[in-house]
Request: fold
Amino acid sequence: GNSVTQMEGPVTLSEEAFLTINCTYTATGYPSLFWYVQYPGEGLQLLLKATKADDKGSNKGFEATYRKETTSFHLEKGSVQVSDSAVYFCALSERGNFNKFYFGSGTKLNVKP
Amino acid sequence: GAGVSQSPSNKVTEKGKDVELRCDPISGHTALYWYRQSLGQGLEFLIYFQGNSAPDKSGLPSDRFSAERTGGSVSTLTIQRTQQEDSAVYLCASSLRGQGAMSTYNEQFFGPGTRLTVL
Reply:
């Protein structure tokens, strides 16, 4: 079956620190992979995506590379800001079937000034 | 324009009561999704509507759960005879068009959710 596992939070970092949030997946076939972000008081929004192996998704300074060999899609940012404080969700959908998404449990990031 | 809206934002009910949760998708979005997020868990897919096609109900956890979408727009998720394990945040999302086997991904836009507490 399909599932997503991401590191538990909360993750607390100082401003300008390097961020990594780990995400690994189990899937039948070749899924598409996503990171969603939920800022305080707001709905989930797409942060970045990758639809095939070795693709790198990037947005707002965040990056994640689709690693088929390690079934991973780790989220990274070189220098976090206080405004990056949010909950981050890793997700996958089966190739050709975007009706169903499988989400991880979310990782809360707190960035301190 | 306006995003996805959901109402109520919070709902507290007693075990055994029925509840209705409402979702107003973005105008023009033909696809609509319901998810559930229990405490400490990821989002759990519940149901998917696409245009006039039969909905994909495969994620509904029991027959106490049902959903409808009237006129291809507003959707209502109904939970009958609520149980304490139904307590969760219920999220709705919409996207621009259907995402079938030959379609490219279309971003889902999420509402703020309804927090349901069953006492």
Notes: Chain B has no helices and ten strands. Chain B touches chain A through 31 residues (CB under 8 Å). The mean pLDDT of chain B is 89. Strands of chain B lie at 5-7, 10-13, 19-24, 31-37, 43-50, 65-69, 75-79, 88-95, 109-110, 114-118.
